[in-house]
Amino acid sequence: MTDVSNLISNIEQGCSKIPKKHFEKGEVITTYIQKRNQICIMVNGKADLIRYDLNGNKDIVDKFNERDIFGEVFYPVHTNNELIVMATTDCDVLFLVHDYIYNRCKQNCKFHNSFSSSILELTLRNSVHQNTRIEVLSKRTIREKLLTYFSILSSKDFSKSFTLPFSLTNLADYLSVDRSAMMRELKNLSNEGFISKNGNRIKLLYK
Amino acid sequence: MTDVSNLISNIEQGCSKIPKKHFEKGEVITTYIQKRNQICIMVNGKADLIRYDLNGNKDIVDKFNERDIFGEVFYPVHTNNELIVMATTDCDVLFLVHDYIYNRCKQNCKFHNSFSSSILELTLRNSVHQNTRIEVLSKRTIREKLLTYFSILSSKDFSKSFTLPFSLTNLADYLSVDRSAMMRELKNLSNEGFISKNGNRIKLLYK
DNA sequence: TAAAAAAAGTTGCAATTGCAACAGAAAAAA
DNA sequence: TTTTTTCTGTTGCAATTGCAACTTTTTTTA
Fold it and tell me: Which of B127, B154, B149 is nearest to B138 (CA)?
């Protein structure tokens, strides 16, 4: 599979002007409502996809990192409540219109031929992440969620030891469980000799 | 967005011979192990993505329906245990190789130009389904999972009444909760006047 | 570098959930 | 049409979880 950076520069340096915008931390990058054909690419920085429910509670629906692809094509809004993408660090974002993939430019240039391939690659990469998350979320206990996720990280790194890609608070969000309950379960796993833990570094002790 | 059937016939009737195979219920369609570039399209029929864990327990990881796209590109195996796609009804499946998207045929024919666009469309559609499932799974209680899913179905149908797309047993699997606990919660929702239920038909009574 | 904010860590308790073990209804297969 | 299988519905009980309310540590910002 082609390297992600190459794909992005491939898209950036295409024949047509694809707008790249800069955002400061806290700024709204886009909203998901009747922008159905919008595809965005995070060139660098991070952002959250946020929904405010009827009671005004903030709900972080998704998190985007450098090189992630997002936009309403991935998440057609089915309710009245708007979804907002908000920068959590300073960032640069490419804005593409999905129709553009079909309505190729007149020249039928080499760029257009590889354009949808590049978008496809990024989308497939996104799909793999989604499947991983679904696999983890579909486990029924916190223990199983943790062990499933750890096992995936372990095989990615080809090692029984690995560093969590985010803080424990964010890990609880990723697993969609109560943080304190997760901490309790991490301690249990540690006490029962399944894992050892030092900050964000985990070592699997079984098998 | 282009109609899914058109996309599939677009792919099927392309310039190159894309193998379409028929499977009887219970046959193995493919395995996910060292077929990293395989993309499959379910033309008709249904299949399950199955994993057997170390204890030999069968775990249904995903379910594919008519018009779904699947294959190891969406689910690179990260563990030793093989994933198997097994037909749950008779079905017809297209087998594509992902590399094919890059290595275009010499003629640079019209087909190849739209090929990756079609795959992209199907993949985006898949992504939308995955996001829906993640949204539902990330709710912490069975009640919230049910109400979130019902709200999505309701807005899809533009109606407070809708029919569940699968059996209650499969609904419990989709939500990844114990079936009997889900039945209990459905009864509670009914008793408390939030919903009314008649077989697979649900009516939302709130707001 | 001091102040503020975010993250980590802990615990009791009540609510929710999974599990097990049923019985009856409906659908599919023989 | 009978048999078999799958699906629906129910309940008690033990285990797990979320919630609330803290303290301590680490990181960020002013």
Answer: B149
Instruction: Based on the fold, state whether residues B123 and B46 are members of the same structural domain.
Output: yes
| Residue B25: predicted pLDDT | 86
* Cα A43 from Cα A41, distance rounded (Å): 6
Residues A58 and A157 in one domain: no
A138 touches strand C (CB under 7 A): no
Q: What is the CATH number of the domain that holds B165?
A: 1.10.10.10
DSSP letter assigned to residue B98: G
Side chain identity, residue A90: D
B8 and B55, same domain (yes or no) = yes
Residues B105 and B162 in one domain: no
**Pairing relation of β-strands B69-70 and B20-23?**
unpaired
The answer to whether A100 and A86 have CB atoms below 8 angstroms apart is no
For A195, the token pair is 């894992």
Q: Smallest CA–CA separation between A176 and chain B, in Å?
A: 5
Same domain, residue pair A190 and A166? yes
**Alpha helices by DSSP H, A57-158:** 110-137, 142-157
Tell whether A73 is within 8 A of chain B (Cβ). yes
> What is the reported pTM?
0.92
Hits for CB < 7 Å against strand C across B residues 15-74: none
What's the CA gap between A12 and A20, in Å, rounded? Answer: 8
Q: Which nucleotides of C are covered by protein (CB under 7 A)?
A: 6-12, 16-21
End-of-domain residue from the set A81, A103, A135: A135
Q: What is the pLDDT of residues A149-160, one digit of tens each?
A: 999 999 988 999
Alpha-carbon distance of A40 to A119, in angstroms, equals 10
The number of domains in chain A is: 2
Alpha-carbon B26 to chain mean position:
18
Closest residue (Cα, C1') to D25: A199
- Asked if A45 and A107 sit in the same domain, the reply is yes
pLDDT tens digits along A93-119? 999 887 766 565 545 556 666 677 788
Tell me which of B135, B160, B183 is where a domain ends: B135
Which residue range forms the structural domain that includes residue B163?
139-204
